[in-house]
Amino acid sequence: MKNIFQIYAEKSISVPKALLFGKYNTLSFEAKMMYSMYQQISQYDNNGLLFLNLQENGHWVKQQIVQELMQYNLVYVVNNCLYFNYIDMDGHIINEIDRLENSKAVASITPAPAPAPAPSTQAPKQQQQESKRTEAINQAYYANEEVPPAIAETLQMFSKNVDESDEYYSIIMKAKKKVADDLGVILWIEDDEALNDCIINSFVRAMRKIQNSSIKNPKGYLYKAIHKSISDLMAERQAPSSLPEGMYNWLEDRD
């Protein structure tokens, strides 16, 4: 089992492909990285919009980076909060991304040169190493004690890779934290089976809706769905009993 230092050392930031092409070519490398990092530490408002509170997170934010991102219309500031715009996907950028994806697909189906005499079932060493590396990364993340096993299994079913699972889990934790902050309580997701079931059911329903519908803001929709489910569960727990004190509910004991 990896320790916490190893786990955090292997965490990464995923930069959107669109920022690598077209007019974003001239955007500095640091700005591209910080744009993605700012999103990871942001939260959703009541309208499902992702924002970063500049007052609370000022130690992470560089003014020159924010100004650069604003020049490219990637962010805007309202009431000391940094909001994120959608990346402007023009035809050139889309073509470049398609070319990149197609080159990966062609590479995967292009026959390799005849190898040196060896058993025909032996995979190339590089392919074996990559497979083992992916397996190790998956095992380290999904066996991580910080993520409840049932939730980790659900994330794995709906994610293309570990980075996407980590992004979904971050949304779950932000929704849980918002409910806890609003109620002034602490929610321990690790030891609460009912809360785990609530999150999983809400996540699955939201993902099915996102996959089968044209949701404009999938991450915001997912956040709001999970937030509402946790809020409803907590409201149900905190609701006083409808029975007068001392009355016995004989219906609960019926077989």
From TrEMBL:
Biased composition (Low complexity): 119-129
Replication initiator protein A C-terminal domain segment(s): 148-228
Domain of life, source organism: Bacteria
Pfam families xrefs: Bac_RepA_C
Region (Disordered): 111-133
Protein name listed in UniProt: Replication initiator protein A C-terminal domain-containing protein
